[in-house]
Amino acid sequence: MVPSESDHPGDTHGDEARKRGKLALAEGDRFGDCTIVRPLGSGGMGQVYLASAPDGMQYALKLLHPELGHRSDDVKRRFLHEAEFLMTIRHRNLVEVFDAGEDKEIGLCYILMEYMPGGSLGDMIAKNGRLPVDTAISYVSQTADALSVAHKQGVIHRDIKPDNILFTADGVPKLTDLGVAKFFDDAADAKLTMDGHLLGTPAYMAPEQMMDSHHIDARADIYSLGVVLYEMLTGNRPNEGSTVMGLLAKAIKGEPLPDVRTLRPEVSMSVAYVLSLMCAPKPDDRPESPSVVVDLLSRAEVGGLILPDGSDKPQKDAKPSFFSRLFGRGKGAT
Questions:
Q1: Nearest CA among 104, 202, 248, 220 for reference residue 155
Q2: Contact at 8 Å (CB) between 48 and 42?
Q3: What is the per-residue pLDDT for 232?
Q4: Could you tell me which residues come within 8 angstroms of residue 228 by beta carbon, excluding any fewer than 6 positions away?
């Protein structure tokens, strides 16, 4: 954390929160050497606050819900594992993490990370609806670059969605929230899966992830990123309003996504075709790595992608043999 005199960075936050054993920080409260400015958001894992350091720098302070930490060491370990991973790598499109730890006295775990004042991609879509095609491709390509770094380190994100793509003040997209990421050979992950936890956000999950969150590879993230691209291009999720059970039924049937050009006719056949590959129901029919996605989108954008016969209906008639000839088939290689 921002350097503090205390051995326990959480020691200086409110006494009432300490007594209740709950997460309850307010404007002006102290956490280590940081002062809480305001809440930024919350989720299933905890709360995020805007915090100011003595030198005027602003950070995002992410705190794990104490009851989750007390209930399961696996959850606590997963929360801190995210920070440890992000502190070991740097990438322009990954949110930077500066410190992480735990107040042993009350079991309050924290992550101190880069503040992203530009909001989320989810906010942008909610405000503007569909985005320009070139903007959507740029955001997906930059996110895919970040995923390449994670995948090469043996990490599958498992929760790619617009709310987990944040923006700097000057509009650079950065991927965040590895709280449900799959770290290869993670025994705790296997336990969470066996205990019946559905890890990820169903509306963006690949079919195989809907059925088994543990035994997936990089291609599950590629599917989710394709759903995000679809949403940016149309302003809607492809399965808007579907229940979890409905999504699971579609996963079991192997139903493809609707044709993006039905809602956005000006999307080129090449871009629509790449999207159909990213969201192919079967993992073997998808690009095997994010770097291949970037290459395909780059060529599709400038009209340099030769399409197979019948690709005027990419969601239905796309032929994986074309993709196989170009790039071969991998098992989630990066």
A1: 220
A2: yes
A3: 98
A4: 121, 140, 143, 160, 161, 162, 165, 204
Give the side-chain half-sphere CA count within 13 A for 212: 6
- Residue-wise pLDDT for 24-41, tens only, equals 688 999 888 899 999 998
Query: How many helices (H) does the chain have, and how many strands (E)?
Result: 14, 10
Query: What is the full DSSP assignment across 244-302?
Result: HHHHHHHHHHTPPPPPHHHH-TTS-HHHHHHHHHHT-SSGGGS-SSHHHHHHHHHHHHT
What is the model's pLDDT at position 56? Answer: 94
Angle at 93 between CA 91 and CA 164, to 5 degrees: 130
Q: Are strands 58-64 and 108-114 parallel, antiparallel or unpaired?
A: antiparallel
C-alpha–C-alpha distance, residues 3 and 76, integer Å:
23
Compute CA 316 distance to the chain's CA centroid, rounded to the nearest angstrom: 27
| Cβ atoms within 10 Å of 128's Cβ, excluding its own | 12
Share of the chain above pLDDT 70, in %: 75
CA–CA gap between residue 197 and residue 19 (Å, rounded): 30
Element holding 11 (H helix, E strand): none
15 classed as catalytic: no
Exactly one of 33, 159, 177, 259 is catalytic; name it. Answer: 159
Per-position DSSP letters for 213-243, written without gaps between them: SSS--HHHHHHHHHHHHHHHHHSS-TTTT--
* CB contact burial 86-118 (16+ within 10 A = b; e otherwise): beeeebebbbbbbbbbbbeebbbbbbbbbbbeb
Q: Find how far residue 74's CA is from the centre of its chain.
A: 20
Domains and CATH numbers, the chain: 15-114 (3.30.200.20), 121-327 (1.10.510.10)
pLDDT tier at 188 (50, 70, 90 boundaries)? very low
pLDDT tens-digit readout, 297-324:
999 998 878 787 655 544 444 444 444 4
Alpha helices of 89-197 — where are they, by DSSP H?
A: 121-128, 133-152, 187-194
Block residue for tokens 């449900």: 180
